[in-house]
Amino acid sequence: MVIGLTGGFGCGKSTTAKLFVDRGYSHVDSDLIVRERVLTVGEVTAAIRKHFGDGVFDPDGRVNRPALAEIVFSNDLERAWLEELTHPIFFEIARATMRDRQGDRWVVEVPLLFEKSLENWFDFTVCVACDPTLQIARLEQRGLDRALAGKRISKQLPLARKIELSDFVLWNDGSTAFLKAQVDRIVDSLEHAKAGAHSLNEL
Question: Does the global pTM surpass 0.70?
């Protein structure tokens, strides 16, 4: 079983993914893959340096993601250029990871799941949502400038539309315990449905 996990920027996808891991799911962490396995590829860093210049690199030669984000979330053409460069590499890494462990149950974080029409990748889709005011507050707590946070949110499909398109919705307006209870309900219902399907197949 493969679950596609999406939601609003800052709504708590990573926290939610960890709760699925606690229930036995393997995790494709999109942020980790991009940071450590996409933005470190020689041809990718060379292309970024040629296109954006040295200003988006740290002194040690690593891509400075906040500096890069400041540019691409202020310019749709630059964002599209970067996505065209990096997304195919990310998706191939994700597919290869899951192919190598086909017996696992997976939760895959994909912020742009619906924007990139990836619904058919997954058995079920889950959207993590929260109140917009809380969303901005959480991003500011992470050190993100309010204006940039607003720009990044505006570049995603509206949260209401993601909720409409998803198979399940998790509300992350309360405590972690409240979020966990919702994850547990989804996992239990999917396991129950799977067990029922196996029983029918045995008749």
Answer: yes
